[in-house]
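Two records follow; treat each independently.
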Amino acid sequence: MLETITAEELVNTPLSSPGWVVEDLIGVGVTLLVGSPKVGKSWLALRLAECVSRGEPLWGFATCGGAVLGLALEDNLPRIQQRLFRLADECSETFHLCVSAPSLADGLLDEIAAFVVAHPGTRLVIVDTLQTVRQSSRKSAYASDYHDVRAFKGLADHFGIAVVLVHHQRKMDDPDPFNTVSGTNGITGAADTTMVLDRRRGDKRAVLRVTGRDVIERELVLEFNDCRWELSEDQCVEHEEERPVPREVLEIIRFMEGRLGWAGTATELIAQAGLGDARAASLGRKLAEHSQALLEAGIRYSTQRSATARTIFLERIAEGQFNDSSDGNDGTFL
């Protein structure tokens, strides 16, 4: 039987967002990092891994910090060592590298899951390249492409991590760079975010074009200096307006000052908090939409539906308690 939720229940339920590994660029889920051969994808992947493993910003974008698994499957250890010599004076102890791994058909996801369980602070897995772990299939090209990327997405969503799949471009030119991703639309369709690193041969400058379900579409102009990709310009193609915290939510935060908890219906909350002409029908939606603002004020919001009414619960929590310390790395992926 299908597990469903009504639209009314969904908009009144506080849900946490998947979260960022690199704020506004790479979130929990699957990100494709695409470029032509020798364009500098592996240098970029190494820089990304070092920043995340150290918790240092990447081009001014904050990183969450945590263990990183890098599968450098087209390289060898001496080559990676030489790159690390040039990339960093001190390398991170939480950045783990591997140059050999089984294919998807031979248990790669189980191996990655075992690593994540053994290293509960894992936040990022990089597969360089996707093609090295693909499995042969009798399915259509689209179905095979979609299935392989969805397999990584299932793992990423289960453990709450980011998986970056380094992938190649087709040789054919196209006015839309995202149409140059090698393979069918099944690859980009299954991924959450796609990044295309576009660089002319011999040019130090490149453009990293970013699009996806949860990211703001942008173009990052990068320059390759001393083996590092550095940000030269950030061009947002679209701008996402941040929705202000509504007056009702701010009034409820003030209402909860000095209180350890409160429970009742939306109508009762409007009356007791002095919300005036606020509408009971929309109050729960506003509280759910801005539950993060409530958490940051030390208030946890939840609801419970009975046969006759929906009860709102507001609970005072200790500072920092709202940070979810659970890694979800329980080893039950497969």
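The next record belongs to a different protein.
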Amino acid sequence: RSKCPRFGVDRMKVYLDMVTNQPHQSGRHFLQIPGPTNVPDRILRAIDGATIDHRGPAFERLAMRVLSGIKPIFQTSDPVLIYTASGTGAWEAALVNTLNPGDRVLMAETGQFSTLWRSLANKLGLDVQFLSGDWRHGVRAADIAAALAKDTDYLIKAVCCVHNETSTGVTSDITAVRNVMDELRHPALLMVDTISSLASIDYKHDEWGVDVTIGGSQKGLMLPPGLSFNAISNKALQIHETAKMNRSYWDWTAMLAANKNGAFPYTPATNLLYGLDEAITILEEEGLKNVFRRHARLAEATRRAVAAWGLETVAQVHSEASNSLTAVMLPDIHNADTFRAIVLERFNMSLGNGLGRLAGKVFRIGHLGAFNELMLAGTLSGVEMGLSAAGIPHEKGGVQAALDYLSSS
């Protein structure tokens, strides 16, 4: 029995609490949150490789493979930088590399993560113009157009959108945003968060005219958390040369210079890059279009199950419903976190919680990454049994509705 000096707790007691308060549950745990997602065995085995010299020739070959191989996932020929960080780090990198202190940025509220991105921008000293939203719809291009049309002095330097809002299960039309920017000939940069859509929902950095795309490793790329990405247009690179925001770790200049030689300006997450290399291979084997079709098919089956249960999704417009996750609303008198706890205890399945203003009101089903029909059937079965166990009014037959769709599509 020994004390942990940092936390002042009895380490043996912590261990005993872990093993005695968690009864054994046979079978696999169903991790059905919208990320981090299930990591395939192939990727786990790749990560399990021996750590190598990150200044040696073997690492150089690895780095060159992943720096090249990640580009088709973004559907770009532009540089893609890889940071050892969560997606929040990639948000910060996008802002500090292209803007000046006090610059105005236009952001649209679509859910918890657009709100967090605004908070980060505020902390960096940027002037955020925030277009309010109801968390049930995507970015409204008309609202973007109205704000930009009033900006005759071009004070807005960047338009920031979340492609797929992980807290709500709502996807935004980025092409519509780009179109209104082009129609108004507004010079602002377009920055897009694809953390829960990359490698799950069709996204075209080049074709859609995005200047900085933000990505993360722990969702469609099927990796553990720890890597994030910036895909960078030539326009953004040119603006970067004169941008005055303070930066060090996030500096694109240092990253780009090192990457040319298959290196990083600091110690990279070598073993996660092994996993990324394997993830790229897996996506190539399936084919990106097939990956998108699979996600769309499983998402539609999920939505049909929710409709059959007589429940409501957060997304109110079918064309905006996410193919990465589905956020399901419960009747007002029922707490979604209580429901999730019952599902975890009874069926060993983790569902996503409600975030921000949706806390306690919704649960989220993740159906992205390494995911197939049988996994979805098990997930929906757990939800349907959980609804009964929690005494939540619903219609029977949601699982069957999903199976019927999967069998016929």
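Discussion point: The first strand starts at residue 3 and ends at 4. How would you locate this feature using only the token line?
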